[in-house]
Amino acid sequence: xxxxxxxxxxxxxxxxxxxxxxxxxxxxxxxxxxxxxxxxxxxxxxxxxxxxxxxxxxxxxxxxxxxxxxxxxxxxxxxxxxxxxxxxxxxxxxxxxxxxxxxxxxxxxxxxxxxxxxxxxxxxxxxxxxxxxxxxxxxxxxxxxxxxxxxxxxxxxxxxxxxxxxxxxxxxxxxxxxxxxxxxxxxxxxxxxxxxxxxxxxxxxxxxxxxxxxxxxxxxxxxxxxxxxxxxxxxxxxxxxxxxxxxxxxxxxxxxxxxxxxxxxxxxxxxxxxxxxxxxxxxxxxxxxxxxxxxxxxxxxxxxxxxxxxxxxxxxxxxxxxxxxxxxxxxxxxxxxxxxxxxxxxxxxxxxxxxxxxxxxxxxxxxxxxxxxxxxxxxxxxxxxxxxxxxxxxxxxxxxxxxxxxxxxxxxxxxxxxxxxxxxxxxxxxxxxxxxxxxxxxxxxxxxxxxxxxxxxxxxxxxxxxxxxxxxxxxxxxxxxxxxxxxxxxxxxxxxxxxxxxxxxxxxxxxxxxxxxxxxxxxxxxxxxxxxxxxxxxxxxxxxx
Length: 545
Ligand code: MG
Prior knowledge:
The protein is α/β, with parallel strands linked by helices. It has 18 helices and 23 strands.
């Protein structure tokens, strides 16, 4: 307790001097997010319960005394008699966004309390950034606070809602996730249990927390699938995993094998697959959340469980992440699970072509020509541009479901990395409505998208040769992602369609988004979920219920 600590410091005449001295002594665990461990006395045993609270402050004013969130203020007054805020102010400038300070033994229930910076109150939507800064600040605060308490091996962490429970749940649950499936269980980092902290007298959005949890768990699932080494995650084992993951989820899974794909005339997909000994699989997921007569949204996820580049082999630095060339498949599976968990009133049909792109004796060669089901011929100019070839047959197959619209998620071109870095996924669409909706979804989730052109200029570059209808790598310099989208449009059944190229956001270094640790990112799963949720929940009262 605060008072007990003061009694242990008879040589100091004032509490303020003592706290200042202790603060200086205990500012020892300065993390990458500049968290500070400050407090009356550090625990000798790992704290069993930790609490994550927030503080608003002007980041440009070092003298700003800070204002605790309503939940933190209530905790401060009720349980610490104001000591929490006193110590926070004495310790120095208020924590900025991404910074955390940890206090120990303020009261008996929570042995460690992390105070996280949120910036100024009501940051809100920034139109130039196309981002809701408040929600992003909450995700970062919740993640960094939990990560600091996790380092202390806290068993259970309680997180306040910071004014938006959905973002708090997202940040905390994504921030806790670590890729350690392949590590010896004895060596794994302990993952604390997370719970929403609330004061009974204050409003509590437990439904928002539930929604954020479903989205974060979906993104974590996508990360888990992406991270699995390619020798463990073949098309067959991916399908087995999906059957297990979606068991009793409300999503039906159909696993279709090579002979089925041959009967469907999926020559393009099978051409890519034949370079590997691993048999291709075509997964079909279905979810019925509303009237069976309502047309489904068709989601297509590119599922190359490994992409060597084929006979046009990639270099080593590019190969390292190519287990993630099934990002589209992982995002679509995770999205379906979240949609079912949230019981969204929508029908979904997900199509996931799974194969390895390898250099076997039957591998496709530059100059090969494939004829697909709609009669068009595709010439393989560059064997490393297999992504569109995998998606073409799924696009043609999608027509049989009479879709409301089609969304495919892929990792086709590294050129989007040059254009955007890791800030947003590239979107191509023939629908202004779909674009506005996915853009708004990205503002809400912080996982943004940006539209690239789907112009005839690129179609001409792909289709202007005499000997075939389309080439998989057109003429002209640059614009490869745009050209791939133009190719896909050639095989699109009528209707609204959106193509997402997420190559650049496949991985993260863990610096740009503090709630995602280094590794596979699972993006843009939450944006895809939000995009679908906003479309089917017009009635505010029925949203996500
Ligand atoms: Mg690829």
